[in-house]
Amino acid sequence: MWCQSCxxxxxxxDAGTCKECYEEASETEEELKREIDxxxxxxxxxxxxxxxxxxxxxxxxxxLLHAIPADAPARPDTPAVPAHRVILASRSPxxxxxxxxxxxxxxxxxxxxxxxxxxxxxxxxxxMYTAEALLDEQMASDLLVLAEKYEVKxxxxxxxxxxxxxxxxxxxxxxxxxxHRHSAKQLLETSLAAIMDNMSTLADREEYKxxxxxxxxxxxxxxxxxxxRQVNTAAGxxxxxxxRKG
Amino acid sequence: MWCQSCxxxxxxxDAGTCKECYEEASETEEELKREIDxxxxxxxxxxxxxxxxxxxxxxxxxxLLHAIPADAPARPDTPAVPAHRVILASRSPxxxxxxxxxxxxxxxxxxxxxxxxxxxxxxxxxxMYTAEALLDEQMASDLLVLAEKYEVKxxxxxxxxxxxxxxxxxxxxxxxxxxHRHSAKQLLETSLAAIMDNMSTLADREEYKxxxxxxxxxxxxxxxxxxxRQVNTAAGxxxxxxxRKG
Lengths: 246, 246
What we know:
2 copies of one chain form a homodimer.
Chain A: E1 15-18, H1 19-46, E2 63-68, E3 81-83, H2 85-91, H3 93-100, H4 104-108, E4 110-114, H5 118-130, H6 137-149, H7 153-165, H8 172-181, H9 185-196, H10 199-202, H11 206-214, H12 216-245
Parallel strand pairs in A: 2-4
Antiparallel strand pairs in A: 2-3
């Protein structure tokens, strides 16, 4: 027998599908690919160039965003990030409320964004125009915090997905604490699972000791989840062995 | 043998794929579906609400578009369609040039759009914000013309695809002439093929007679294409019979 897909010969017990299902699956794949092409082209159309300060008068924005870092005062030569009211208001309910009501920010067109660096603010605004961001772990964490603050759900999910893909034994505790602080459920579950897979070395870790100092409640939750899993596993084995007996 | 996809029994000669390729294909399908979900969510994020005249001050636009119909003077009570410079300029090179240069339209914020009804203009602006349009054949034709004029390629392709899917024996000549006028290649090919499939009744059609009057060059092109196809088909048969002889 010959496989219609890889053209190799195979044994009867290695049969996958009948001819009809094979053809249907190929058609489905083609359809999905066409849909992807269509979505990509619409996405490309809807992307906007994020505005720059030195652009021509047309793209001149009606807002200026100022990054105010948490640790240091903003350097006086740090440029502002230009933006358009219509874009920020459509992406974020927080900006919408700020700009719809006659608040100081709306009148002056100047918005201060606290606890954030210029680079992160620029990446934030760029995402508002393009639905794209170049992430590393630091940038993803910083953008997630900003996305949460301004209720940009799409960006928060994007960053959380990225961080979740980066969870390892080495950073699980840090990510776990971060996920807790910012209600990132998927990241929380993944990092908690990674921690529970390495309980024997947990207490030796620096991040663990820090967490015990700073937020012992979270440490308790780790132990509770671990114990819970042990009990469930034991109950599962119990059921297994009793069903084997029966 | 049992198909892993439809679970039905089948004969050996109806085998489609081996098990390995079956599993790979299922994975590919899952991946494509995940990509579609991701693209849809980004698309949803980038859509903008198209502005309305009575919205709150925030969405207040900085442009007003006036529809000037070709056949009748615009009724004085026809409302203008509001829009934002940043959106129109990013979607259309024609609007970009108009708004970047210090033209009358840019200074006044008022743009007259000629030969178009209010409804079509509204649908046009809506597409600029959402990459979506509700089409019937008339709307698709009208929007295609406007998209061509303002070089909104994405919208032109969208309308052309819709019209191409509607080509039938009854409307092929009309679509053919329209496609010619607006350089719509895909629509041209599909409608020409539909015409050539019904050459025996061609000369009786009203649209044919009109076209002979208005643009006989196009009629000549139909006959040339038809003759060309006949010659090629004959040559094909010739090759067939000579290869059979050989």
